Amino acid sequence: MARLIDRRMGVFLAGLFILTVALPMASSAAAGQLVPAYLVSLVGKYLCYALLAVALDLVWGFCGILSLGHGAFFALGGYAMGMYLMRQIGPRGVYGDPVLPDFMVFLNWQELPWFWLGFDRFWFAALMVMAAPGLLAFVFGWFAFRSRVSGVYLSIITQAMTYALMLAFFRNEMGFGGNNGLTDFKDILGLDLTAASTRTGLFVASAVALAGGLMIARWITASRLGRVLVAIRDAEERTRFLGYRVEHYKLFVFTVSAAMAGVAGALYVPQVGIINPGEFSPANSIEIVIWVALGGRGTLIGAALGAFLVTLAKTVLTGWLPELWLFALGGLFIMVTLWLPGGVLGAIETGLTRLRAFASMRTKEIET
Amino acid sequence: MSGSLLYLSGVTKSFDGFAAINGLSLVIMPGELRAVIGPNGAGKTTMMDIITGKTHPDRGQVFWKEKVDLSRIDEVAAARLGIGRKFQKPTVIDSLTVAENLELALKGQRGLTARLFGRSSRTMHADIMQIADRIGLAASRNDLAGTLSHGQKQWLEIGMLLAQDPDLMLVDEPAAGMTDEETMRTAELLRSIAGHRAVIVVEHDMDFVRALGCKVTVLHQGRVLAEGPLDFVSANPEVIEVYLGR
Ligand SMILES: Nc1ncnc2c1ncn2[C@@H]1O[C@H](COP(=O)(O)OP(=O)(O)O)[C@@H](O)[C@H]1O
Ligand SMILES: [Mg+2]
């Protein structure tokens, strides 16, 4: 079996660790706020995107399932967390109802819908963060993979799935806050969400989740099951004729990936302070694919790196030249497909290998 | 037929009204080596699809070891029963190494949890080495399958079939794209495999079929046109007419 932490993973985790320790310290009052405090939540958000990208890479990079609906799993995890945060508000809402969130009072609802029950408890919400997207992926995959829907057709129906969910969540009657979504959160686990310490805690939790997600994905892909996934990606028919129930393997990895995306969404919501149906928009799901392709498909680390770089570029560019962002993203995507088939990670690694070869050549020259 | 490994009787399969297989009957005994020849479109690949559960016949019987009805099961179930198949176009897992390809094919452990938690054992390594050696790829066992030559890929795929340890191997046009020397070595390999397990080989290359030195079935328009030793069938005027004569 391949080693769980290879060199690539080791370097990445070390970098992530340094970031996790250094950023909150640099932004603290004790350090004289070397960097602005908002950076903690911003980078925390990027870490959630990185985890989402790892989840997509697990199915797309290793099993060839090009999901264009992973944004939906992310959003569902986010909504599950949002529901918990809503119920944490308690009587502090604008209308002061002890149980009902503001939007329900506004809609003249008399009692909490059944699917909101239990969300006042953190453990239940945490479970739902993974169970809701996991269950959707399982049911969806059950039908899709058993009927051998694959390739472009599968991509299209995943896109349709997230679109349908977006329309559903826009409706007030659904009971998820409609258009406005869920917001005005006050605290999490009794801790004030605006406090620097809480923000740091969420940031660290995101980093830990990313590291954990990477390790789980790596464990799966480096196992003997991972070989079956790659076989399905490269030659699905062959794998079936070897006696593997391809649909079971796809279902497994799709469900795990969806749950992972849900966790990413759940950590994202308290850091940005809102979740609304826009998160289900088809364009979001496509953007995740671009992160993975740019970073380097099938490498896990590359996916995380890609998410980080692209969303960073997005923050900078949209603040500066908002009209240009989509063109820049498109251009970047074309450039990478044309010139960097291994993505950014592939480019970095070839660059390093060349540099090393060059350096050893130079030392030999000097020695002789 | 008593003691048969595979028994096809009156099998028919139509695609949009066109009968690709039309009343096909065939008996394969355990350990037998059989060559199936026939012009393009004769139904050879479709016949393999039916035996491996990829396609279900419209009519007729397909029996495995005289009791299992193959017309009702799928590819995965057929593979698990002990039917291995090599595709017409060589298909190996390009981004895995030769050894990993063989490990994937190795008999046993097809379930999710067994694959997730299980580790390869010493005997598995020994089996993989032995097969790699047999298909002449021992030296390249750690190379990615994608880097192999066309002929080596064909062998690797045959090796994967061996690793499955099936009772019947279906081999679709193994000599396609091979040099003469590779073709002869492949014939030798298949001959050495038969006896222990049954092998059905579909092939166009007459020298190759001759080198196999086994019973030949000539397929034409989805039916058996002639059956017997190569010299016998090639003397058949009908066979000459549809196939060999040109
Ligand atoms: N899935 C299919 N749909 C329609 N026609 C098919 C299909 N599979 C095979 N055929 C037709 O059946 C006939 C036999 O094909 P095939 O078994 O591939 O022949 P061979 O392998 O002997 O060259 C051909 O005319 C082919 O076009
Ligand atoms: Mg054919």
UniProtKB/TrEMBL annotation, chain A:
<dbReference type="GO" id="GO:0015658">
    <property type="term" value="F:branched-chain amino acid transmembrane transporter activity"/>
</dbReference>
<protein>
    <submittedName>
        <fullName>Amino acid/amide ABC transporter membrane protein 2 (HAAT family)</fullName>
    </submittedName>
</protein>
<feature type="transmembrane region" description="Helical">
    <location>
        <begin position="122"/>
        <end position="145"/>
    </location>
</feature>
<feature type="transmembrane region" description="Helical">
    <location>
        <begin position="288"/>
        <end position="312"/>
    </location>
</feature>
<feature type="transmembrane region" description="Helical">
    <location>
        <begin position="201"/>
        <end position="220"/>
    </location>
</feature>
<keyword id="KW-0472">Membrane</keyword>
<keyword id="KW-1003">Cell membrane</keyword>
<dbReference type="InterPro" id="IPR017778">
    <property type="entry name" value="ABC_transptr_urea_perm_UrtC"/>
</dbReference>
<dbReference type="InterPro" id="IPR043428">
    <property type="entry name" value="LivM-like"/>
</dbReference>
<dbReference type="GO" id="GO:0005886">
    <property type="term" value="C:plasma membrane"/>
</dbReference>
<dbReference type="InterPro" id="IPR001851">
    <property type="entry name" value="ABC_transp_permease"/>
</dbReference>
<feature type="transmembrane region" description="Helical">
    <location>
        <begin position="324"/>
        <end position="348"/>
    </location>
</feature>
<keyword id="KW-1133">Transmembrane helix</keyword>
<dbReference type="Pfam" id="PF02653">
    <property type="entry name" value="BPD_transp_2"/>
</dbReference>
<feature type="transmembrane region" description="Helical">
    <location>
        <begin position="152"/>
        <end position="170"/>
    </location>
</feature>
<keyword id="KW-0812">Transmembrane</keyword>
<feature type="transmembrane region" description="Helical">
    <location>
        <begin position="59"/>
        <end position="81"/>
    </location>
</feature>
<feature type="transmembrane region" description="Helical">
    <location>
        <begin position="249"/>
        <end position="268"/>
    </location>
</feature>
From TrEMBL, chain B:
<protein>
    <submittedName>
        <fullName>Urea transport system ATP-binding protein</fullName>
    </submittedName>
</protein>
<dbReference type="InterPro" id="IPR027417">
    <property type="entry name" value="P-loop_NTPase"/>
</dbReference>
<keyword id="KW-0067">ATP-binding</keyword>
<dbReference type="Pfam" id="PF12399">
    <property type="entry name" value="BCA_ABC_TP_C"/>
</dbReference>
<dbReference type="InterPro" id="IPR032823">
    <property type="entry name" value="BCA_ABC_TP_C"/>
</dbReference>
<dbReference type="GO" id="GO:0016887">
    <property type="term" value="F:ATP hydrolysis activity"/>
</dbReference>
<dbReference type="GO" id="GO:0005524">
    <property type="term" value="F:ATP binding"/>
</dbReference>
<keyword id="KW-0547">Nucleotide-binding</keyword>
<keyword id="KW-0813">Transport</keyword>
<feature type="domain" description="ABC transporter">
    <location>
        <begin position="6"/>
        <end position="246"/>
    </location>
</feature>
<dbReference type="GO" id="GO:0005886">
    <property type="term" value="C:plasma membrane"/>
</dbReference>
<dbReference type="InterPro" id="IPR003439">
    <property type="entry name" value="ABC_transporter-like_ATP-bd"/>
</dbReference>
<dbReference type="Pfam" id="PF00005">
    <property type="entry name" value="ABC_tran"/>
</dbReference>
<dbReference type="InterPro" id="IPR051120">
    <property type="entry name" value="ABC_AA/LPS_Transport"/>
</dbReference>
<dbReference type="InterPro" id="IPR017781">
    <property type="entry name" value="ABC_transptr_urea_ATP-bd_UrtD"/>
</dbReference>
